Amino acid sequence: MRVSTIQTFNNGVNNMKRVSGLAAETQNQISTGKKFLTPSDDPVAATRILQLNQELVLRDQYKKNITSVTNRLSLEESVLNGVSDVLQKIRELSVQAGDGSLTPEDRGFLAQEVSTRLEEMLGLLNSRDANGEYIFAGYRGNTQPFVDGGGGGYRFQGDEGERLVQIGATTWVSSRDSGKQIFEDIPAFNKTFVTSNNPRNTAIPPGSVSVGRVIDQAVFDEFHPDDAYIVFEPPDAIEPAGANFTVRRMSDNRVIDGLQNERFVSGDAIQFAGIQVRISGNPDVGDSFMIESSSRQSVLTTLGRFAEGLNTIDGSPEGREQIEALVGQTIENLDSAQTSILEARSKIGSRLNTLESTLA
Asked: Is the pLDDT at 269 greater than 90, yes or no?
């Protein structure tokens, strides 16, 4: 078969274009340092390259996450060390308070020191991280976790969430701990209680109930696990008319220890079922205050009760017995708090080790 001149010419042109294209492609590969310029050059290799690029991006993100979590846990560990130091100082004050030669005035000075340490503790528990979020608030990082509840008590308004951060393809690490578990849910040495204002109270400014304390453990143990509430009655329930209250069981509304329509004096001690609390302010009729049995005691409550006891227990023989009991309970509860903090620090150490080994 004869090949026409035009066909020969076209074949030559096509070969020149192909060679020119290959030369241009080679030049682009040299100038860019890349073997494949488009996925169509090698689809299989292009897919693998895409996977590798994605893995590199993830690896960089994991490194950033590891650095962020490491910094945050290191800060939390530092704060917990500070809390532990404060607890140790309070323990030393507790031992001093047990000195039988101290006068009520001497114990009042110790109470001032305890109150100062309590404020220091509160500041630590409300610490923030580099992003301005509260360390111990759980998921509610923008909400201050520990706030004044009135009467020397404090409320926890964070949650129990623990944020998990991915640091590897199959590895996640908690970047924070809830303050509820570390500082609130501490096993108490003895059966105890917590106090609170009913959120439906109407007095403005609101009345407040103190953290209170157990003054007769045996009597309170018999009452436990029942709860109680103090409710304010109409003024004309007593003669002459005036503010008055009744103490009732939560379970069946029975009056406790005959405390019905008792005249109210702001700040005076109210004693029943082996415990003592104080209500301050001018509550409205119908306002109530809760006393709930518990087997746990927050570290702030331990400090608050210690300060209140030092300030209010007199120098009588009975008062000295109460001081002895208060000191013993305080020391035991401080030791429980230290144990809780030690456990939290141990968990942080384990997580830091995981972060370090993952980064290596």
From this structure: yes
User: What are the Cα distances from residue 314, in Å, to 97, 105, 106, 321, 323?
Assistant: 13, 9, 11, 10, 9
User: How far is it, in rounded angstroms, from Cα 161 to Cα 79?
Assistant: 19
Residue 45 in any domain: the answer is no
Integer angstrom CA distances of residue 25 from 4, 13, 17, 33, 148 = 32, 18, 12, 12, 73
* 111 located within any domain: yes
Are residues 170 and 239 located together in one domain of the fold? yes
Provide the CATH number for the domain around residue 175.
1.20.1330.10
359 compared with 354, residue with greater pLDDT: 354
Q: Is it the case that residue 11 has pLDDT exceeding 80? A: no
CB atoms near residue 268 (< 10 Å)? 12
Clarify whether residues 2 and 146 are in a common domain. no
Six-digit token string for 205: 């400014």
The answer to whether residues 277 and 347 belong to one domain is yes
Q: Which two tokens stand for residue 199?
A: 């959120």
pLDDT per residue as tens digits for the range 200-252: 999 999 999 999 999 999 999 999 999 999 999 999 999 999 999 999 999 99
- Sorted by sequence, the CB contacts under 8 Å of residue 34 that are 6+ apart come out as none
Q: Based on the fold, state whether residues 27 and 90 are members of the same structural domain.
A: no
